[in-house]
Amino acid sequence: MVGWVPYALVWYLLGRRLSSPERLPNMRAADAGLAFVLVSLLASLGLDAWGVTPELVPEAHALQAVGIFVGLALLGWGIGRRSKALSRAA
Length: 90
Hints:
Blueprint: H1 4-18, H2 28-49, H3 62-89
Helix pairs in contact: 2-3
């Protein structure tokens, strides 16, 4: 399973770099949101692996929770902009 992650990521990044739809808004906000979610989740899991669990020290995980929330908001906003543009074009 871990071997497929870099493979899928490389093809995703190539597709995002090489495609340029003229009439549709870019998806940079959604990409940034996804990055926020993944980095925050990995940071929280890293703290959990070191023994700093949310039950023991909830303040340590507050920043990651805000990062996940902001990332999901950016992801939803980016997808919403794209779907609104697709609705206008159709």
